[in-house]
Amino acid sequence: MHNSGHDFSDDERAGLYRAIYERRDVRSQFLPDPIPRPVLARLLNAAHHAPSVGFMQPWDFILIDSPEIREQVLASFNEENAKAAKNYTGERQQTYRSLKLQGITESPMNLCITCNRSRGGDHVLGRNSVVEMDLFSTCLAVQNLWLAARAEGIGVGWVSIIDQSRLASILNLPENVYPLAYLCLGYVSEFLDKPELETKGWRSRLPLEGLVHSNRWGAEPDDEALLEQLRR
Ligand SMILES: Cc1cc2c(cc1C)N(C[C@H](O)[C@H](O)[C@H](O)COP(=O)(O)O)c1[nH]c(=O)[nH]c(=O)c1N2
């Protein structure tokens, strides 16, 4: 059968999967080396080629190198992180406190990807029933950038332990613009083999076979051949 969409070479396909499997959330391994502008432009362009509801392209990219702004963001992180630590007790809390959950000042740059909730006007194609579709679209821009960064040898860390309204005010965001992702970017000393949360015993990857259902929630697929592949 001729399949003209099957036009990735084996190497190209392997490269894409490699970026997917070897992408990591980076917090501790940042090097101070600046990101060359052509590389940064490629990452932003990768993000800008994400799918978006009604082709809304709700994202903007705030490049942050100001030490003062980063210190303000870090202060919000420290406050929110102290609150978050109180959700745990005993050994779990000790483990939580031992986790490094941001690289705001060590990374050579921070990037906030925002979602402009009113871009495209009142009626965006595909956003009529579920208004959050713009946020989901912006998440895809984040993931595009994250994968492209991996292929460029650049680590990305997502810091969500920040008060969003404080972040919006630090970055001077207009009313309709939501600070969707606060990211730390930079070259790294290494990409870890596994998520740090797994290595540190916080949580491990769930078996995929238990997450695949057939037609209705809870019904295990009776496709043994597929299940066997999923167990690998
Ligand atoms: C929306 C969102 C928000 C956050 C994260 C991720 C995502 C998708 N992650 C990273 C997260 O812990 C990590 O992705 C998982 O542990 C899996 O590890 P790898 O990304 O595969 O290395 C993350 N990590 C961290 O150290 N501090 C944080 O605030 C956050 N916040």
Provide the domain count. Answer: 2
Order of helices and strands: HHEHHEHEHEHH
CATH topology of the largest domain: NADH Oxidase
How does the major sheet shape up? 4 strands, antiparallel
Query: What is the straight-line distance between the termini?
Result: 29 Å
What is the top-level CATH class of the largest domain? Alpha Beta
Would you identify the regions where 5 or more consecutive residues have pLDDT less than 50?
none
Structural class: alpha+beta
Please render the helix and strand layout as text.
Elements: H1 10-22, H2 37-48, E1 59-64, H3 67-85, H4 90-98, E2 109-116, H5 133-151, E3 154-158, H6 164-170, E4 177-187, H7 196-199, H8 224-231
Antiparallel strand pairs: 1-2, 2-4, 3-4
The structure holds the ligand Cc1cc2c(cc1C)N(C[C@H](O)[C@H](O)[C@H](O)COP(=O)(O)O)c1[nH]c(=O)[nH]c(=O)c1N2.
Which descriptors would you attach to this protein?
NADP, 5,6-dimethylbenzimidazole synthase activity, single chain, alpha+beta, 232 residues, 8 helices
Give an overview of the whole structure.
It is a single chain. This protein folds into 2 domains: 23-201, NADH Oxidase (3-Layer(aba) Sandwich); 205-232, no CATH class. The protein is 39% helix and 13% strand. It has helices at residues 10-22, 37-48, 67-85, 90-98, 133-151, 164-170, 196-199, 224-231; strands at 59-64, 109-116, 154-158, 177-187. A 4-stranded antiparallel sheet has the order 1-2-4-3, sandwiched between helices. The longest helix has 19 residues, at 67-85. The model has no long low-confidence stretch (mean pLDDT 96). The structure holds the ligand Cc1cc2c(cc1C)N(C[C@H](O)[C@H](O)[C@H](O)COP(=O)(O)O)c1[nH]c(=O)[nH]c(=O)c1N2. The site of the ligand Cc1cc2c(cc1C)N(C[C@H](O)[C@H](O)[C@H](O)COP(=O)(O)O)c1[nH]c(=O)[nH]c(=O)c1N2 has 11 residues, from loops.
